Q: What sequence folds into this?
């Protein structure tokens, strides 16, 4: 069943902020990124490893560092407890599926360790599409 | 209670193309030599499970070296290597492996490598079928473009973390978390060599017009790829094996691009099958 966007944001924030792997190296994990799931878009702002704010209704001029854009079906695949091959990460899905990584790639690379861990938390939170 | 591993490490020094290398290798077992190449930007601990696998080391002399510039093998001692960008070539890679086998006086070794080690296994099958009993290219293909990226050593990012987390998706989510993080840990140690290794992997290695010349009946080629490998996906390996005379393709379920390091318990099942086929096709 599709989750309400605000309920999803609360859950994702809670799961992120209590994740031990992120907490182990959280200092300086500060950046913002958009998850573009077609019908649903969010901007997640991180500060020192914690979710500072999740913008669940971003306007056209709301800023972020980088964005992940893919079809709703791809996001649903990302959120499976054990994703199918090629849906198991942003590298695999951008090489082999429809995921587009846009914006400032340098910020993504500077935060890749923690972002990768946080992205996989979608397997626990699910997605709102 | 302390426990010693049966695995031992040694250094051997020899020249390759005018470069003096002091090479570190791990060894355990007896019988048929099985020489193992780690993946790009990594080192021989990726083979830790195989090196201590009693069933395999009972009949196979498992040798896993660190390629120069990786792990405990230094860059060349007789050149000012820091004054030029490192770019591994197919010629030098092949010459190194043959010289290593010569230095250890290995007779008819089986060569196995993963990723860029798998690609060089194909190069060896093409160039030196006389020197190797068989090759096992793991996660390999005739051509593997797309990974020679500046991000691996970009000065504005933490290169160690970029390398470690940049290869994270190459592993299957089913592989044990402990082994995936060990592999991540190894990758944080090789940031300065990873991109140079990938010059071979994604640029210099291109056998698309040469597969027909590999003598797979003289030197059996047993290729294996995991279903979660997005760099050389199963269809790329299968397509390569199909074009090699006598080439064999084995698909490995629920495993990724670093099978020996991310999940040895799954990998060993397929490896034993590869070794069985080699025994069947050779004199033992």
A:
């Amino acid at each position: 069943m599709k989750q309400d966007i605000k309920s999803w944001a609360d859950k994702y924030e809670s799961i992120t902020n209590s994740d031990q792997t992120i907490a182990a190296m959280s200092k300086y994990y500060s950046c913002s990124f958009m998850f573009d799931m077609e019908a649903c878009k969010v901007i997640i702002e991180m500060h020192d490893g914690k979710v500072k704010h999740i913008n669940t209704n971003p306007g056209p001029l709301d800023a972020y560092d980088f964005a992940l854009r893919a079809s709703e079906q791809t996001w649903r695949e990302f959120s499976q407890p054990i994703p199918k091959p090629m849906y198991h990460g942003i590298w695999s899905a951008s090489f082999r599926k429809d995921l587009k990584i846009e914006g400032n790639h340098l910020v993504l690379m500077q935060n890749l360790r923690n972002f990768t861990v946080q992205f996989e938390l979608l397997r626990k939170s699910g997605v709102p599409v | 209670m302390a426990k010693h591993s049966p695995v031992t490490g040694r250094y051997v020094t020899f020249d390759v193309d005018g470069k003096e290398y002091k090479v570190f290798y791990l060894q355990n077992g007896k019988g048929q030599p099985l020489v193992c190449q780690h993946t790009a930007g990594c080192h021989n601990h990726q083979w830790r499970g195989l090196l201590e696998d009693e069933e395999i080391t009972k009949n196979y002399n498992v040798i896993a070296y660190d390629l120069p510039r990786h792990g405990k093998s230094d860059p060349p001692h007789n050149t000012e290597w820091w004054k030029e960008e490192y770019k591994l070539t197919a010629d030098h890679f092949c010459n190194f492996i043959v010289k290593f086998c010569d230095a250890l006086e290995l007779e008819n070794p089986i060569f196995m490598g993963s990723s860029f080690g798998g690609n060089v296994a194909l190069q060896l099958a093409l160039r030196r079928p006389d020197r190797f009993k068989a090759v096992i290219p793991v996660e390999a293909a005739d051509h593997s473009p797309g990974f020679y990226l500046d991000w691996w050593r970009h000065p504005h990012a933490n290169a160690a973390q970029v390398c470690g987390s940049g290869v994270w998706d190459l592993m299957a989510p089913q592989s044990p978390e402990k082994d995936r993080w060990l592999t991540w840990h190894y990758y944080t140690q090789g940031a300065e060599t990873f991109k140079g290794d990938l010059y071979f992997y994604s640029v210099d290695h291109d056998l698309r017009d040469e597969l027909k010349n590999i003598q797979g009946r003289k030197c059996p080629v047993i290729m294996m790829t995991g279903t979660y490998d997005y760099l050389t996906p199963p269809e790329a390996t299968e397509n390569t094996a199909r074009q090699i005379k006598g080439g064999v393709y084995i698909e490995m379920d629920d495993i990724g691009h670093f099978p020996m390091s991310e999940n040895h318990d799954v990998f060993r099942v397929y490896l034993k099958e590869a070794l069985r086929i080699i025994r069947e096709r050779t004199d033992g």
Q: What stands out?
A: The mean pLDDT of chain B is 97. The first helix of chain B runs from residue 48 to 51. Residues 8-281 of chain B form a domain with the Rossmann fold fold (CATH 3.40.50.1820).
